[in-house]
Amino acid sequence: MRIGIVCYPTFGGSGVVATELGIELSNRGHEVHFITYKQPVRLELLGSRVHFHEVNVPEYPLFHYQPYELALSSKLVDMVKLHKIEILHVHYAIPHAYAAYMAKKMLQESGIYVPIVTTLHGTDITLVGSHPFYKTAVEFSINKSDAVTSVSESLKQDTLRLFDIKNTIHVVTNFIDLTKYNHGFTDCQRSMMAHDDERIITHISNFRPVKRIQDVIKVFYNIQKEIPAKLMMVGEGPEKEPAEKLCKDLGIYDRVVFFGNSNEIDRILCFSDLFVLPSETESFGLAALEAMASGVPVISSNTGGIPEVNIDGVSGYLSDVGDIDSMSKKALKILKDSKTLWGFKNQAKTQAQKFDIHKIVPQYEVIYENTLSNCMQLK
Ligand code: GMT
Q1: pTM for the whole structure
Q2: What is the DSSP string of 91-129?
Q3: Which residues of the chain have pLDDT under 50?
Q4: Which of 52, 68, 124, 184 is 20–30 Å from 322 (CA)?
């Protein structure tokens, strides 16, 4: 198949999923065209089956807001025609599903029919999409998609609750390429980060308010009062500065490393003992899955789709959003004794295997095939 993928090219989970999906689809013999404003961060190699087409939005002083959707839908039309793309898979409803629908309509004028698969990722539904300023257009574009997927059962239920959806929503979870996490790093260069007797706690996110970064710091503060520990904070975003300030105020700044965005997540997870994800809302929690695949147990909130990924008492523990005391106690329960820690590490790895890329990507292929054959019948 010739597949066009539209996504955000940044460090966010939806962009990562779209990129890894495109790479795997190309490995499986499909021709993949990424269409977005920048080369996706995890897309290192372009080749005969992986292409990138940049969407340019020229600045014009009249515009207070540059019309990205317009540029994207024009680019989609051009690329579908030029590369004979058969299906468009758009990740994150806003504004991608809307732009794809416009492209589809324009292509129909030339007698070209290209179906659209929309994948809902989380905040496009729970935080942004359901906002009254966007809701009408988001609902419209979800209903006009030829197939809709969501990354967890929880997100599917949220979508049905928040919008009037006529389409079937197929749950296709986030996935993981386990080979990337069965790394050959022998000592993970752990000694560069911490002493032998220190536990390493890690958090990775885009540092948005929804991630409750202050909770990560407070949980760590409680942990390091009981056992020697270091905290690795990976990512960039608006909550980073306040987090650094809180570390200084609590007198733990020397025990916390702020990495910024990193392309070496696997290396950082390799030397981590515990991952903390206390989000306010989280449709799936790809970062938690990446941690588990590296054998890192997870302390998380029990919100959204996280309980579908992190199993309480198995791959880690779950607590109510904001319950720092519970999260700290459960973290210590895992960390205090090495035998318990290794038990959780192994269980986390086993749980991650349920989301093996080789199990999940074929589900998208089936959706593409069914969508294409339904569209053939409608032609
Ligand atoms: O919140 C993020 O980390 C970024 C966001 C995105 O859209 O890029 O992630 C969402 O999509 C991921 C991939 O499907 C999910 O694993 C995340 O749970 C989801 N984030 C939220 O729902 C807050």
Answers
A1: 0.94
A2: ESHHHHHHHHHHHHHHHHHTT----EEEEE-SHHHHTTT
A3: none
A4: 124
